[in-house]
Amino acid sequence: MPDGVLSELLAPDLQTRAYAISGATALRHFLTTRTEVRAVGDALRSGVITEQAVRRFTETLIRDLQRGILFEHDRTLAALAVALKDWHTPFSAEYLRGLADLEAAEMPYGPRVAREVLSNRPTSQAKSMIVGRREEPGTQPAVRAADLRTHRERPPTRAKNKANRIAFNGVG
Amino acid sequence: MATLEYFLMTESYSVDQSSNRVSLFNVLEDVGGPNFPVEFAEIVAVSSWIVPPEEQALPLEITLRLHPPDGKEPQDFPMKLEPGNAARRRSFISLIGFRFRLVGDWRFEMLLAGRHQANHIVTVVQPEPGGPGPGAAARPGG
Hints:
The complex is a heterodimer.
Chain A: H1 5-8, H2 12-19, H3 24-33, H4 35-46, H5 51-62, H6 74-83, H7 90-100, H8 110-119, H9 145-153, E1 160-167
Helix pairs in contact in A: 3-6, 3-8, 4-6, 6-8, 7-8
Chain B: E1 3-15, E2 22-27, E3 30-31, E4 38-50, E5 60-67, E6 75-81, E7 88-100, E8 104-112, E9 115-124
Parallel strand pairs in B: 3-9
Antiparallel strand pairs in B: 1-2, 1-4, 4-7, 5-6, 5-8, 8-9
């Protein structure tokens, strides 16, 4: 078993408390509040652990899966799903979708929590960037009278707008 | 040849009367809600076109083509943008009381003179009972 933040997901305190919870929604909420789970997400973001380490950890857990026997690491996989909720990479998508698609009687919680995580994730990622220095208040040059005159005298190049309204009324 | 600058499906828009600046609100991506089908009071196809000087005396014949996810016959909404001395022409085609009656990808296609220019896909999902689902901000029934 690995050391560090990932092994904390196997800590008896977390496991015992997680076992007392029934229902995927409640379990997801519980796991969201746990420092062990948040630590995994933080470690990924800060580069302390890699996705490869998470993959190896998961593979190690899966080795214990046996047909017909309740999977002892079911809730740990659920915890990993919660840890990955804000980690938007192909790896996390693969993990969450892979787990969510599982239908195994041996794993009553992991797939359901993964589905919960996916349904509560934003469906589109947005990234914004600001190039250049922000304007400090008072640093913008004052508008000069000449600028206004130029503005008034400029040729009529404003965009031409046209709007149509079509009554659809549910026909679609 | 005029070129398409942008094309988006939104819930609403505004044009500032003094600056002529456009603002778009709620670009439609994934929509869904507890009630199905999902109905919008209005959705708007917004497009902006750059017209070269030699073509500014000509109208632009554009068409919004709606492809429902079931592969049935698409619907066309043509519009003529009249000539003018502006390099940029914008169109706003509002579909009032629009109902997404099927789950899946609704493809909104923009054409110029019958030729494809761009697509905007709106994905309609039917969430599981009890969940808010994507696009919960959509206003089913309103």
